[in-house]
Amino acid sequence: MExxxxxxxxxxxxxGWRVQDIIPESSFTxxxxxxxxxxxxxxxxxxxxxxxxxxxHGHEVKFGEVLYIIAEGEKRMWPRVQAWKSxxxxxxxxxxxxxxxxxxFHRPANVTALLSELExxxxxxxxxxxxxxxxCFSGGDEDKAQDMGMWIEGVNRLQRQTDADVIAxxxxxxxxxxxxxxxxxxxxxxxxxxxxxxxxNDELVLSCEKQKDSEEFPDIRLHLTKHADSCILxxxxxxxxxxxxxxxxxxxxxxxxxxxxxxxxxxxxxxTWYRHVEVLxxxxxxxxxxxxxxxxxxxxx
Length: 301
Known about the structure:
By secondary structure, the protein is of the alpha/beta class. The chain has two domains: about 5-235, Rossmann fold; about 240-295, Orthogonal Bundle (Arc Repressor Mutant, subunit A), CATH 1.10.10. Helix content is about 30%, strand content about 25%. The chain has eight helices and 14 strands. A nine-stranded mixed beta sheet has the order 5-4-6-7-3-8-9-10-11. Helix 6 (about 240-250) crosses helix 8. It starts with 16 loop residues before the first strand and ends in a 6-residue tail after the last strand. The model has no long low-confidence stretch (mean pLDDT about 90).
């Protein structure tokens, strides 16, 4: 057992974002929705953007390796991947890892087998998507906190060995306003996201119900749009350029901050932060005064 001081925590790696403002790194995220909404299109979008290091509808995404557990709908997944590649004009392979069957996380032997396979392959995994909780909980009772606790411990084992972000896809409860089953699952999550129908035709809304270590983001409106032999998610809103969100952090800090303080508060990869700063500098939105970056007087967020 390791015992350290509070001061030692300064030297530990601090998690940033997998998907800026939405999916934290080294976190357990619960995404729930009613049946047939299109939640697997959403998680596939995140997975492929992670593999490509591509922005997700205006939100920066940190590149990484993905393990997608397709416990249901395996035969429908490839046309969705093809449609995504076609829409975004990727003509090469996307890589990633897929397990086309359920992994029973409440059964220690199943988790051990998964971890052993990853270790034997010397795999480095940054993001794991479990689609769905129900299919990976065979024989367990979702309503019992004890059963759900065993499932959560299986996910925790996976995270302890891989340090991966985990997104668990789950069904909504009977009135669709909360996740199905025991509240222990939501209590264990760092982030809880709800995907639901919006007010407009074919509009879908991603909302944040819990963000343990950050502010909850505003609702994100999307469309499930027909493309090729499947569908892809497109934005309804025109998102602010990502560098403007980095600028908003500086404004929130009082309009001035040192490089290290602004970088830390932005929670972005250093290369991404530098790219945003260069854009903002060229646009005349920031300048340097001694050791500080300062916003220009005309800046509006």
